[in-house]
Amino acid sequence: MKRDMFRKASFSLMAGAALLLMAAQAADAADKVRMSGMVESVDGDNFNLKTTDGKEVMVMMAPSLSLMGIKKAGVSDIKPGDFIGVGSQPTANGINGAVQVVIFPASMKGTGEGDRAWGVRPNGQMTNATVKEASQDANGPLLTLAYNGGERKVNIPADTTILAIASATKDDLKAGTAVTVQGTDAGGGMISADNVRVGLAGAIPPK
């Protein structure tokens, strides 16, 4: 009961706190943060987030919020010419094995293009590139990814998480929905979010 009263009181303070947060951001007084978790409750442009490490955070969606939907997909949805983001790790056969794949819509082709270190997994690589070729080898589906300045071959194991970016609205933010939030740390367990990825139909957005 006390917890519910605290949440309502916290939500009622959000509107006034917004102006203070904007001033703090302009002065570079706050830190950028990124976290994932589940929506616990929603009140207008604010929601309560329980993070994957058990923390409770009040998220205030900024007016300039970028809201992106994430839906489940399969290896059959990946075709030559698609622009995708692949998080992968080295394997014994010398070709990286995918851990997760995100399929971008055509309008986002070229976003973050390149091949770089991916800190989510040991020795991980993140490759945002165009699918040049899709084939099969002894280890399953094999993608040849082409980006400005190079290529990378990646196997897609059966347990790879495959997702696709889709449109979303604030109505998709509901209790029990998985999200990834990026924004400004306002202190006191509050965040002013400028980017939210929301899982659709049970999907879990990538970290």
What does this protein look like?
The structure is a single chain. It is built from 2 helices and 12 strands, in the order H-H-E-E-E-E-E-E-E-E-E-E-E-E. The two termini are 33 Å apart. A hairpin with a 6-residue loop joins strand 4 (83-89) and strand 5. The longest helix is centred in the N-terminal third of the chain and has 13 residues, at 14-26. It is elongated, with a radius of gyration of 19 Å. By secondary structure, the protein is mainly beta. Strands 1, 2, 3, 4, 5, 6, 7, 8, 9, 10, 11 and 12 form a 12-stranded mixed β-sheet that branches.
Main features:
207 residues, 53% strand, mainly beta, 12-stranded mixed beta sheet, elongated, 2 helices
Short description:
The protein contains two helices and twelve strands; from the N terminus they run H-H-E-E-E-E-E-E-E-E-E-E-E-E. The protein is mainly beta and 207 residues long.
What amount of the residues lies in strands? over 45%
* Spatial gap, N to C terminus: 33 Å
Mean pLDDT: 85
Largest sheet: 12 strands, mixed
Total DSSP helices: 2
Residue stretches low in confidence (pLDDT < 50, at least 5 long) are 1-30
| DSSP, total strands | 12
Residue share in helix:
10-25%
Series of secondary-structure elements, N-terminal to C-terminal: HHEEEEEEEEEEEE
Shape: elongated
Structural class: mainly beta
Rg, nearest Å: 19 Å
